[in-house]
Amino acid sequence: MAQDTTVPKLNFEYWLDKAIEWGQATTLESQKDVCLHLPQLQEFLHQLYETIKHLGPTVAIQQFPLIGQLLGRLCWNPFVIGYDESQKTLMWCLCCLYSSEPQNAVELKANSWIRSLLCHLLSSSKWESNEAETSTFISALGYTSADYYCHLVKNMVVSLVTELRENQYNGLNIQESISATRVNAISIFCVPLITLPDLTPLLETLLLYHGGSSKEILSSEFLEAVNEAFLKKKISLPESAVFSLWLRHLPSLEKATLHLLDQVFSIQLNSLEEVARVIKDSLLPQAASHPAIFRIVNEIFKNALMETDGTPEVMTIIQVFTQLFLQAYQNENNQKFPLKAYFPYHHQPLVRSLVRHPFELPTTYWSQHVKHISDMLKAIVEDTNVSSLTDLFEIWFLVACFGDWLDIAAEQLLKAAVEPDPVLWLLAFYYCPKNENQQRTQTMVEAQALYNHLMTLFSCRNLSLKDLEAAVHRVTGVEQCCNQQLTTHLLTNFLLFSSGGHKIAQECIYHITEITDTSKEVYNLLIRTAYRFNRSGEENQRTVKLMNELLQKFTLKV
Questions:
Q1: Distance in angstroms (rounded) separating the CA atoms of residues 77 and 317
Q2: Residue 175 has pLDDT above 60, yes or no
């Protein structure tokens, strides 16, 4: 027959009287008395915990009105908390009294008091301030103060991790399962101790813990604190724990993405290798292998691009992120999700063509692939169903994320025998997606004229700035920004890849960017091209050397 766990059976008043009598065990007599009663006290605390663990904070306090006074006194007795599992049991009892959703000022104050006690139980700094009161006990164990508290924290963490993992594996055993309220309370008590290295296993276990509740059981304060510490590199966590954090707490994912943008903007954008390293270290591309994370990060990037009026720096960051995401996605041994999960509202054949990395194909096939992309895109854009600017922007953003194919398209116009119209249309769409008042059509006409002019000069080995004056005037004389950017793109590629362009590249590009406001566009084009060359092992050392020289010039100017 089950024992009736009422107040008299628990001898509650007896142990409260003892706790008052002992105080903090500062005298020899009280220390001896505490040591004599420690086994019985631990048994009492275990019975108390078993009694209140399913009651909830309100009912527990109603049944044991003086429970706070008892636990508070015992938590400050170094002999009690140093004995066997008493500290752990005290902590569990405190967690049972914590209100995950406080309804009034009394419950808020009680939560604050509980947090302070939990911090005290694991904070060596607070205990060390009372070293005179605990030195006798610690010395008797043969430890120094630092060693003692280090072992205490480690043992406490191991105990908690074991409890949580056993509960996770035994989740169907309702009687033994840990309540969501207690798990929430554990996460709360971790908040002020987040950066303790010994606490990392517990943080990982909590982040990977999923109870039976449909609601989030970890406190938002805990999730925010872990994310903040991780972003500031104050803690190191396994990738699985970080991914779980971002999946279960959207504000943390948003903050991590915005933090990445700030971080990249704060560094000197000398090379995309450095940008790629920073982005990869953030773990966001790897986390984006989960479609929910990818779509949210993509939306944040999209908003950042609109808020900055399509600045080239943001677009370059998005393109590098997309490349790293695809690497992580393709490196997964078991790809759990199809591409449609990441791009659910887009034309899937177009998506599959864009995600193909240029280096997966022979260079002789690039022109054909670019034409294929352009033909599909044109059919979609000119479809009468694509009527709203929102739809058009979504299509444009998809193409813009895969910037390698756009840069390759501009290069193929000059370096390979290609059919120019589909390639020029693709570039015209990128730089001028809207066709209001025939803007894109006019851009296409002017780009075609510029292309024809450049091709007549492509094989000339002795070029001067005067030879390119017509092209330069075409760039500087057009007011529409989209056409100005496209013609600057084509002209820069001509100077990089033509026979005679190298000699006048610095003079010509400097002249153009002085007159127009395209310095950032040219600079980002150069670092993108250099990045692709470095990854592909491009052997044209003359072009690589020229790009490096131009980048050095532009570093001071941009």
A1: 56
A2: no
